[in-house]
Structure formats: structure tokens, C-alpha cells
Design goal:
The complex is a heterodimer of chains A (about 200) and B (about 375). Chain A is of the alpha/beta class and about 200 residues long. In chain A, about 45% of the residues lie in helices and about 15% in strands. In chain B, about 45% of the residues lie in helices and about 15% in strands. Chain B contains twelve helices and 13 strands. The chains are: A alpha/beta (about 200), B alpha/beta (about 375).
Chain lengths: ~200, ~375
Amino acid sequence: MKLVAVSAGLSTPSSTRLLADRLADSVRDELAARGLAVSAEVVELRELAGDVANHLVTGFPAPRLAAAIDAVTGADGLIVVTPVFTASYSGLFKSFFDVIAPDALAGKPVLVAATGGTARHSLVLEHAMRPLFAYLRATVVPTAVYAASADWGSGGDEYADGLPGRIRRAGGELAALMADRPARAEPEDDVTALERQLADLRFD
Amino acid sequence: MQFGIFTVGDVTPDPTDGRVPTEHERIKAMVAIALKAEEVGLDVFATGEHHNPPFVPSSPTTLLGHIAARTEKLVLSTATTLITTNDPVKIAEDYAMLQHLADGRVDLMLGRGNTGPVYPWFGQDIRQGIDLAKENYALLRRLWREDVVDWEGRFRTPLQAFTSTPRPLDGVPPFVWHGSIRSPEIAEQAAFYGDGFFHNNIFWPADHTRRMVQLYRRRYAHHGHGRPEDAIVGLGGQVFLRKNSQDAIREFRPYFDNAPVYGHGPSLEEFTEQTPLTVGSPQQVIERTLSFRESVGHYQRQLFLMDHAGLPLKTVLEQLDILGEEVVPVLRREFAIGRPDDVPDAPTHAARVTAAATAQEVGAA
């Protein structure tokens, strides 16, 4: 089983990447508890920033970006984490998903998460991230995880679990969706896939 | 195998000095480029059709008719003729007329155009793009093949006892290519009719071209026109040549960096690595072009884009000298090596007339 985490963090080390890693660990532990082995890969968008911009200009991905897109579209489950920029996901995060075919994530289990300096931005998950993946017809897990700077050093309060608790809950939800997914058929070669798309086209 | 050039007909500032040719200069330059193509021994000149600035060639048969009168051997073609927004009756008439004037040195490549707004300019609806391409082409074929046509469709007024004039030269319509970058539907259309398929092969990675051509070949066989290797394939390509590859790179870089289609994106080095663009010595261009055969199989037509992105006419003519003298003769020789005898040649009017006559005899026997 393949788990891919997309991190749009820009600094090194970044709290966005840290959150992506913690979420991935949580999903892996949960799947392991169910007796399922999972390989996890992290896609760092910072390393692909130039390739993403070039794709917008040329219409096709450079090899490294193509590999990242293949990893994301071929994953059994996806964790996507962005820093909050100007009341939304970052431009790089959005541009990466802009260059992925609109139907490539349909039905895919996705866990959305974000980081920010203050908890005041946390609804970005509900007014920006969740609608984006709803548009892509992905299956977004109920728990979305927001980590403000203060969350890394504090526990829960009377309204919410602490960050570790939320990570565990979200990871459990994604793992459950991944475990319930039927195994995928061997991918057909791309020319055959094109032929199948053409089945309804008639010139006579 | 045929070799030639295709032009978009863009008016683009020369990024090295900011000079912008007038429309008049650009149109005359296109003629000079076509005449040069014949002079240096190329086989084909194809013009784009566009109806918006910064492009000038809105009337391809006017341009090609003029070039026909000033050339002897050059096959005149298009890249592409808009099958969606042109009235198929007018396409049938214009290209049959051109066929007569050019003594058969005419074929055309159909496409859907480069910009959405062109549809309303000609009274059409972009949402019907694929359906227009289907219906218009079906009518165009009938107009060329049947002397009297009764027809009714969705997108234009019905025809009753209509005869498109003049009739195609020798009763054989111009050969048709279908041009596409990324629409598998167009490869399917070419395959369905047993027509040629041309992949622009410039802006996208070679692997993408390989897939589209493979799809076309498979579907060509599926529709009963022959073996996959009998299908008629054309490819684009883009090169800039100097004797010394470092000179080619230095001279072409500002044009690349500011090119309307891919400028301000990847570096010249990245783009040449990832797409078929080749900037270098004649030998490098020869090797790269020969490699196309490895991805698409033996093919019939290779066209190069030579005159875009603001390159001055003088440079383009120099490029054509190098292409015609140092590159194409080697390509002709090398492409012939290992080419099975039963792989079809590029279609010509004379060959098609002969084939039609043979088919008739077989039918009568």
C-alpha cells in the first residue's frame, strides 16, 4: 500500500513538513495495527517550485515533477499539508494541484492539514482546503488537522484534543479509508487507456 | 519521405533589437521563405491559418495560390485549416481551385485552431468543437467525392442537388492530414477515415508524441485500412542551426527566452532535453531527427518550424540554406536505410491518381 504526503512548507526544517511526517507516522502505525504494510513517500513542493512554474508555462511536466505527479495520483492515500498564506493555501500548493489532471484524484482518500502562526487561521481547512479537494472529487477524511505554532508545545483544552490527539484521530480515519479500499487493478498501458476513452466516439 | 517547413505566421518583435515587422513585411517574408524552401530542395511548405493578431495568414489559399504560381515542385499545405469554423463548402471549393492552379501540388492538414474566441467570429459555438469537426469533415469528403450532394446536418443550412466547383483535379481530392497536439479524438478521426495524422511534436515531450502516433496506428488498423505501419504519419520539429553548436545556442537563446509559446519558462537547455527542439550543428539536428523514427516508426513527412519567435528573415533564409544543403540530403539517405519496401511513401497527387485508377480497374474486373 502506498501513502504519499505532500508538503508545501518552504523553510528547512519546516513545521509543515513536521506535521506531514507526524500524520504519515500515525497512518502507518494504524495500518500496521491492522496488519497492513505501507510505504510512505513525502513530496516536498519546495524542490519542485521551478518545475511547477515551468509546467504552467509549457503545459507539460519536467521529469522530476512528472515523477511527483505519478506518485500522488498513484497513491492509495494522500496527506496534503500547506502553510497558511494570505488567508488560504499557498500559491505553490495550489499550483501543484493545478497541474494535476482534474479527475486524477477522484475517489482518493485525502487527509487535509495546515500550519500557521496562530490558531485564528484554522478555518482555512474548512473554507479553502476541503472545497479544493471536494472539487477534485477526492474523499476527504472528517478530521482536518491544523497546527498553530503554539500547538507544538501545548496540550488540549476543553474544546479540542491536543495536536497529538488530533493527529492520531485523523491518521486513524485515513488508515480506515485506505484499508477499506479495494486493491487496484494493474494499470493498463496509456495507449490502451486512450483507446478506451475513444470507445464512444463515432464518425459514421 | 517528404521534408519541408511549416509556418505559424506570427508577427513577433525581434527580442535582440525590438524591431517588429509590419504585416506586409511578414506576409512577403512568408513568400520568400516558401520560395527558398523550393530553391534548397525541400518538398513541402505549409502555412497556418489564424484570425487574430499577432498572426497574419487568415487566407491560406490566397497565399498558397501565389506561391504555387512562383514554384514548380513544392507541395503546398496547411498547418492547420480550421475544420470547425470554416464552412466545409468553402474549404471544398477553395482547395479544389488551388489544386487546379498548382497542378495537384496541394494537400491540407485539418485542425481545430489555437484560440476559443475564433468560434463566435465565424458564427459557431466552441462547445460544439468536436461535433463541428466531425460533421464538417464528413460533408467536406462528400463534396469532393460526389458530384451532386443532398445533405442535411446540425450546423449549416441543408444542401439540395449541390455541386461544389471546381471538381477536384483528376477526380482525386487533396490528401488530408489531421493535426493535433493532445486530442486523441483527432487521432481517431484520422484513423477512422484512413487519412494522415500529423503530430506537431514541438512543445511536448517525445514520449507524448509516441503515444499519440501509436494510438493513431492502432486505430488505423482497427478501422480496416491496413497494418499499423501502413498509416500515414507526419511530424513537426523545431531546429536552429549553425556550423558550430555553441554559436547556434548563443544566437538562438534570446529568441527562445522570449518566445511567445514557451519563453520565460524552462531554460533552453532544459527544453531541448525534454522536447524535440534541437539547437546545434547540422550533425546534431540530423541525429535528433533520425531518433524520431525510433519513437513513431517509419513515417512519411517531416516538417520543421523555422521562422517564429521574431527571427529576422535573413536568419531564416540562412537556416533554410543549411537545412536544405547539409541536413535534409543526409536525412533522406539515412531514413531510407532499413525502411521496408512496403512502408508507404508520402502521398502525392500523381500517386493518388494512379492508385484511384488501379482501384477502378480492380473494381471493373
